């Protein structure tokens, strides 16, 4: 049971390929079931465990876990609605010598293990089965999902049948997109990986603590990163982004626009056509509070022509031509509405949408939300989940844009800069607790650094 940070994300198909390449499916199931049993024993204390087993190999994992728990002397019962249908699951079922209770009449237990369906779920659950799943979970103190909460798809975060909210999901062999993507992810609870030694390769990974560029003895303010924030109609938003850039670690932040007042560390200058010609500028952030009028259009055109690395957010995303050729490293930070507006609506998974957008616009995309997907034009993807829901407040996106500018100006390549900023933003939100405002989040960036 290991934390998932930095681990590859695999789809059902790539998981099956990894399984085939391994060759010994029976050994994999034995390992998976043993891993589930170990985790359950660690968390259950002396409490009885009830394992719900489905017809496929997810159910097979459940039977193996039940046998392992029994052998270890742990009180365990099994319930199922249908007989196993795969050879592996049948073999695992045959080794379970206790009774198999019908799902509809199964007595609850304090610890519930959901081994109904995993990566093979192909349609909604039978309504009566789903009802009993919910009944047993409601009566349990702890619900542990094997591989995935039964009812969610594997690859795109969709929910076919609403499962109970599990406390823990044990991802078998690899993390899957639905462990991270909403709405499915909310049913998984904490996600931990059971390593099956498959070492699958993937261009998609779970976000991990980044390697920040910390200052050293030779550092000066410009080498640490100079960020220019292009202001506009609503100076509050660009100021928030400016202060975020400072607190995320930029050595020098230039706010180009109206507005006065603290912090004194912020260098304020009015906007001018030549404002972005300073060769020391390592990143330009444009969009927070920019407005969408002709002035905004002119400023965006100047930023795009400047050749400086760019972070394009908020209003600027509404003025941008996604298909125009790029003259500089560029990071876009759209939320779902902005992705729809820029690239058109789509029912594809958030990972695929971010990847397609990045390739089409030749940029790094930070597709924001409760699950944030960062994609590069070369197909690399990293996904950040478990962000505080309290981030759903005005101005938190401006903070992310400023932090992204600081990371880009520090010299990190765009994909790494975007990843570092998203991680920093998420951790800052964690430190803020509940009911914080964007200004608090800015302060917390320093504490995370
Ligand atoms: N990959 C690996 O490395 C490892 C994988 N392992 C485990 O294997 C799991 C995948 O197993 P799996 O492919 O047998 O699929 P699983 O999710 O058990 O169910 C599919 C079965 O249910 C059926 N069915 C589908 N939907 C249904 C519905 N709504 N209502 C009713 N029936 C429905 C479907 O039949 P269908 O009718 O669609 O043909 C099929 O019979 C994976 O999650 C992990 O736990 C580990 O053991 C070891 C390493
Ligand atoms: N429910 C949520 N849980 C976690 N993070 C969220 C949630 N809703 C929004 N966020 C994050 O909060 C920020 C909101 O940005 P955005 O929508 O641009 O707001 P604004 O433009 O008002 O600053 C993004 O970083 C997004 O990922
Ligand atoms: K399951």
From TrEMBL:
It catalyses: (6R)-NADPHX = (6S)-NADPHX; (6S)-NADHX + ADP = AMP + phosphate + NADH + H(+); (6R)-NADHX = (6S)-NADHX; (6S)-NADPHX + ADP = AMP + phosphate + NADPH + H(+). The gene is nnrE. Catalyzes the epimerization of the S- and R-forms of NAD(P)HX, a damaged form of NAD(P)H that is a result of enzymatic or heat-dependent hydration. This is a prerequisite for the S-specific NAD(P)H-hydrate dehydratase to allow the repair of both epimers of NAD(P)HX. Bifunctional enzyme that catalyzes the epimerization of the S- and R-forms of NAD(P)HX and the dehydration of the S-form of NAD(P)HX at the expense of ADP, which is converted to AMP. This allows the repair of both epimers of NAD(P)HX, a damaged form of NAD(P)H that is a result of enzymatic or heat-dependent hydration. In the C-terminal section; belongs to the NnrD/CARKD family. AMP binds at residues 368-372, 397. Binds 1 potassium ion per subunit. Gene3D superfamilies: 3.40.1190.20, YjeF N-terminal domain (3.40.50.10260). (6S)-NADPHX binds at residues 57-61, 118-124, 147, 237, 289, 335, 398. K(+) binds at residues 58, 114, 150. Its cofactor is Mg(2+); K(+). Pfam families: Carb_kinase, YjeF_N. This is Bifunctional NAD(P)H-hydrate repair enzyme. InterPro entries: Carbohydrate_kinase_pred_CS, CARKD, Nnr, Ribokinase-like, YjeF_N_dom, YjeF_N_dom_sf. Residues 204-449 form the YjeF C-terminal domain. The keyword Disulfide bond does not apply. Residues 10-204 form the YjeF N-terminal domain. Its EC number is 4.2.1.136, 5.1.99.6. The lineage of its organism: Bacteria, Pseudomonadati, Pseudomonadota, Alphaproteobacteria, Sphingomonadales. Keywords: ATP-binding, Isomerase, Lyase, Metal-binding, Multifunctional enzyme, NAD, NADP, Nucleotide-binding, Potassium. Transmembrane segments: none annotated.
């Amino acid at each position: 049971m290991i934390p998932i940070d930095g681990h590859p994300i695999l789809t059902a198909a790539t998981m099956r390929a990894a399984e085939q390449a391994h060759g010994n499916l029976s050994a994999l199931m034995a390992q998976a079931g043993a891993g589930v049993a170990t985790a359950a024993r660690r968390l259950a204390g002396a409490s009885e465990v009830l394992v719900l087993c489905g017809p496929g190999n997810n159910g097979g994992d459940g039977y193996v876990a039940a046998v392992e728990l029994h052998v270890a002397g742990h009180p365990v019962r099994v319930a199922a609605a249908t007989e196993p249908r795969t050879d592996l699951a049948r073999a695992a079922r045959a080794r379970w010598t206790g009774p198999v209770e019908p799902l509809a009449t199964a007595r609850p237990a304090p610890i519930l293990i959901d081994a109904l369906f995993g990566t093979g779920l192909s349609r909604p659950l039978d309504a009566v089965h789903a009802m009993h799943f919910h009944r047993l979970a409601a009566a349990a103190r702890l619900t542990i999902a094997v591989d995935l909460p039964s009812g969610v798809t594997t690859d795109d975060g969709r929910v076919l049948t609403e499962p109970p909210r599990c406390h823990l999901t044990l991802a078998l062999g690899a993390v899957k997109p639905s462990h991270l993507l909403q709405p499915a992810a909310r049913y998984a609870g904490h996600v931990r990986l059971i390593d099956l030694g498959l070492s699958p390769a993937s261009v998609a990974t779970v976000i991990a603590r980044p390697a920040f560029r910390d200052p050293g003895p030779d550092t000066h303010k410009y080498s640490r990163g100079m960020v220019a924030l292009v202001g506009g109609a609503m100076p509050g938003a660009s100021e928030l982004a400016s202060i975020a850039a400072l607190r995320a670690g930029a050595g020098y932040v230039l706010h180009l626009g109206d507005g006065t007042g603290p912090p004194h560390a912020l260098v304020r200058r009015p906007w001018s056509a030549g404002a972005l010609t300073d060769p020391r500028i390592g990143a330009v952030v444009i969009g927070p509070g920019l407005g969408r009028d002709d002035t905004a259009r002119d400023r965006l055109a100047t930023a795009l022509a400047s050749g400086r690395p760019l972070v394009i957010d908020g209003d600027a995303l509404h003025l941008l031509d996604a298909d125009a050729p790029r003259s500089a490293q560029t990071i876009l930070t759209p939320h779902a509405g902005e992705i729809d507006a820029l690239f058109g609506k789509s029912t594809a998974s958030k990972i695929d949408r971010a990847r397609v957008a990045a390739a089409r616009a030749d940029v790094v995309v930070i597709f924001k939300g409760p699950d944030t997907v960062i994609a590069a034009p070369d197909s690399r993807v990293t996904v950040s989940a478990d962000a505080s829901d309290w981030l759903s407040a005005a101005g938190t996106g401006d903070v992310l844009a400023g932090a992204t500018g600081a990371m880009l100006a520090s010299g990190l390549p765009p994909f790494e800069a975007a990843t570092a900023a998203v991680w920093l933003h998420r951790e800052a939100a964690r430190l803020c607790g509940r009911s914080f405002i964007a200004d608090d989040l800015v302060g917390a960036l320093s504490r995370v650094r």
